[in-house]
Amino acid sequence: MRMRTTDINKIKAIKESVLNLSQDVGLSNMTTAKIAKEASVSPATIYLHYHDKTDLLSRLYEEVKVKLHEGLDQAIDQTQNLEVQIGQAIRFSVAQYRKFPKQAYFMGTLWSNQELLDQHAIEFGNTMESPLADLFVRIQQSPEYSPLSHDVLEIFFTVPTLVLEREPKMDEKELNQIINMVTKAIKK
């Protein structure tokens, strides 16, 4: 069954509303009524496409995660040493954050509130084939780096985007300092 253009536009409006409201009111204060009002659709329209708020957040989480990681495999040059690869991964994340700030904020908020996601979305996030996950394995296997868990490495790698949230005009010098700090923190 082919979706009509009006349905596609309504779904886009719903998703955009979620991204806007995640910044404006937060995920826990976001209701389907608020989403519908922001999207200029009826609440029933949301339920035509999603079971509930959890389903909506979960499907959007999966979609945004793919979007934000798109191109990461080309950004990380595995022929370089791990320190260079770490810098490449962090620079990519910062570039994606700058390119898609609403989506990056949404992902960061959901990463801290995984109870708002369904099991499928959590598993998708944990098992998604990712060059970043591969990089984490290489770091974990390297004798130069501390044996840190995937979760701890992920936290270190989010530091630059957390700084970027507070200092949107972060320059190249500051980014290099943060990359050096992260690299030193995870080395033995």
Automatic annotation (TrEMBL):
It comes from Weissella thailandensis. It holds the Pfam family TetR_N. Coiled coil: none annotated. The keyword Methyltransferase does not apply. InterPro entries: Homeodomain-like_sf, HTH-type_Tx_Regulator, HTH_TetR. PROSITE patterns: HTH_TETR_2. It comes from the Bacteria. The lineage of its organism: Bacteria, Bacillati, Bacillota, Bacilli, Lactobacillales. Residues 8-68 form the HTH tetR-type domain. Keywords: DNA-binding. This is TetR/AcrR family transcriptional regulator. Residues 31-50 bind DNA.
